[in-house]
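Below is our example:

___
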Amino acid sequence: MTETTRDVVVVGSGVSGLSAAVYAARADLEPVVLEGPEPGGQLTLTTDVENFLGFPEGVGGMELIQRGKEQAERFGAEFVRATVESADLEDRPFELSLSNGETLRTRALIVATGASARWVGAENEDELMGYGVSTCATCDGAFHRGDDVLVIGGGDSAMEEALFLAKFAESVTIVHRRDELRASEVMARRALDHEKIEFRWNTELLEIHGSQEEGVTGATLVSHPDGYPKEKFENGDEVDRDDVDVGGIFYGVGHVPNTDFLEETPVSLDDDGHLLTLEGMTTETNVDGVFGAGDVMDPNYRQAITAAGTGSMAALDAEAWLDEQDAERTEAATPA
């Protein structure tokens, strides 16, 4: 790959990356898509997607991703199973060092690496993620009408999840490992005052009960009056254990944007690591030729439909930028 300079490389193969690939490929930019360690991103953990436009009966997360990949390939996108280990974004063309040992050069770069939800390390969470365990209440909350559900966390994310779930669930219990919240005063008060929301203080989730066939059926919680009970449990200290019947468990302990490979580059990131784009309706960053799409630059909405939208925007922005570069180059080469 080293000898050829591509017009566009898309880093990430979730819904934003696939949308960018479709638009870039239809513009004859022949994009390369770096699929990353988990092709398809977070949507592959969602069994049913009911709020993506055009699928009135819903669609499986994996199916939606696979369709998007096939669509991008149909228009000429090339997929490579690799991640970016480091990036030189100061020289032109950009140079990406990949996990497969190859080097990839590109004129424009679309960063669509997403954000990874933090998990809590409870037993069986790997098996039941997407089967009653979720990291997105707005994605999956409607599946839990009439259920008793748990929300894990104590920050604004957990309060937002709980307040949204209270529209559907019979009851919502926020499980927090300390006896005070990290959430803002406004968000904390809304949750504390809500008639459907209860709190389990100094408590953590130890084990999730259920199966992929049945979904989540319950959970084992541990608690200790001094907080952080899992740590005490693992150290052999005495803690209280409690088995509860619940139909869903939602993790609200935040997301980590996948921007490690940008930390030593000139691209601006916020304090949490999200890619910063310029003011206004654009996906451009402070580095000419670098564009952002999806959850990596969006800490607020984090929806498949918005990610797809920003993916198309990034491709359109990249196409316009490349056209401008070509026009300037032609003008400079034309004799006066």
In short: The radius of gyration is 22 Å. The first helix runs from residue 15 to 26. The helical segments are 15-26, 61-74, 125-128, 137-140, 156-165, 185-193, 229-234, 304-333.
